[in-house]
Amino acid sequence: MPTPAAPTNVVKRRKLPIGIQTFREIREDNCYYVDKTGMAVDLVEQGKFYFLSRPRRFGKSLFLDTLKDLFEGHQDLFSGLAAETRWDWTVRYPVIRLSFGAGVVHTHEALEQSMHQQLTHHETHFKLPAVFPDLRSRLVDLIARLHAQAGQRVVVLVDEYDKPILDNITDSAAATVMRDGLRNLYSVIKDSDAHLKFAMLTGVSKFSKVSLFSGLNNLKDITMDARYSALCGYTDADVDTVFAPELAGLDREEIKRWYNGYNWTGESVYNPFDLLLLFDSHEFRPYWFETGTPDFLIQLLTQRHTYTPDLAHMVALETLLSSFDVDAIPTEALMFQAGYLTVNSVRRIPGMMQITLKYPNLEVRSSLNGALLQGLTGDPVRHGILAPRLYDLLLANDFAGMQTLFTAFFESIPFEWFTNNPIAQYEGYYASVFYSYFAALGLDVETERSSNAGRLDMRVLFNQTVYLFEFKVVELTSDGRALQQIKDQGYAKPYLALGQPIHQIGVEFSKASRSVVGFEVETVQPSY
């Protein structure tokens, strides 16, 4: 009996392009590729100068490399892709691609050396030896001579335009030197307008035009353009079609809960790095987060006494999210541009856009709160010991054990750490530590839930059980106000219809002893 033919809709498995940022390599080595070439053509047809900000490891470098091959006319690489039938392959443009992604530079001399090396590479490639010794003149001259040589205007692509500044962000003097050096270089883009066909700069942060792009007001910022929200990253449709052969044995909803949710006012996307490593290992892990969350971020949030429950629902104007400079780094802008918060909803008011932020997914919420615990407590090890214990206590509804756990935890923090740290005067610190432990476990946690009665500090849904928390800071001893507020305000009422046990928990912290002094629990059983 003949073997049945394979279904025609079955997609064959390909190589996973883990860490590959070269378009040609992906296309020639039979790797999976999510087609972004249609949006690339859209950009070329609709404008000339662009800026795009996206977090690290989101595919910015690959997109620029795709643009490079498109402009250079490598038609064979675009077979079957959206750009194949939309591009004029009879015209080829000279491309200058600059990147600051490799290595770390800390001095003006090192920055100039990097740039001279890159310009020398292009001059050698196009057989146009340098005429001028300084960087700005070299680049201006190279663009003009390339235009004359090729008979076509030049394309300039700049990758990781801001990395030299971000590498020095904790040293404002060094960061300022980098910023000023780059500003001198980027001003060439506007001055060379007559010789340019297209230019695009990409990076993690959007430094204000006044500080870095002084005079470069012809860049169109598409960072928050809904049409290009999915320009970098994978959509749900991409996962279900392009990567369909990799989904076997994986919980599709769990993939979405763990990794989807990055949004720039349009379609939400996954970080490519996360998904490729998930498909490779079939293990849910914080792959993106583990590749380089900066200590600077944790230090800044701790120094600013950030109330960690507020991170889940920050509100800011779009102008604030793009307000970023060496000596002015709003918390909202840093968290958003680095990828730790993303767009939840948008409210458009005449002349402005108000954006509510949220954690993009479980990976970021859990991992960031775990990292914050280390900064909040000065103990990088203890979280790994206590978090599994807290999970077990929740499973058993062992509230006495939970009180003992948190009391012992706060009491274990060395007195010297408090005396040398202004956070000791920060009332929200105690509730922040408490909240971050639950959030780091990856539980269904919601903070400051509104009802007709007011705002509840924290709600946890776990194991078919509802936990309602109210936090109070007292001077010395418990006075019962935390639990009483839950009861007086009727915070349990919205959850009665769930038919699940509701544990009302009032937690009180003493500023004097720096520990838990009240942990009262009252349970409301479901009525059937």
Using only CA atoms, what is the Rg?
27 Å
* End-to-end distance: 59 Å
Strand order of the largest sheet: 2-3-4-1-5
CATH architecture of the largest domain: 3-Layer(aba) Sandwich
Low-confidence stretches: 1-8
* Portion of residues within helices: 25-40%
Q: Structural class, judged by helices and strands?
A: alpha/beta
CATH fold-level topology of the largest domain? Rossmann fold
Mean pLDDT: 88
Number-wise, the strands total: 13
Largest sheet composition? 5 strands, parallel
CATH class of the largest domain: Alpha Beta
Strand percentage: 15-25%
**How many separate structural domains?**
4
Descriptive key words:
Rossmann fold, 528 residues, single chain, 4 domains, 5-stranded mixed beta sheet, 19 helices, elongated, alpha/beta
Describe this structure in words.
This protein has 4 domains: 23-228, Rossmann fold, CATH 3.40.50; 236-283, no CATH class; 291-358, no CATH class; 378-524, 3-Layer(aba) Sandwich (Trna Endonuclease, Chain: A, domain 1), CATH 3.40.1350. Helix content is 38%, strand content 17%. It has 19 helices and 13 strands. The chain has helices at 23-28, 37-46, 60-71, 108-125, 135-150, 163-166, 172-191, 236-241, 252-259, 272-281, 295-303, 318-321, 331-338, 362-377, 382-396, 399-412, 415-419, 428-440, 481-489; strands spanning 49-53, 95-99, 154-159, 196-203, 220-221, 315-317, 342-349, 352-358, 444-451, 454-462, 465-474, 502-510, 515-524. Strand 7 and strand 8 form a beta hairpin. The chain is elongated, with a radius of gyration of 27 Å. The model is unreliable at 1-8 (pLDDT under 50).
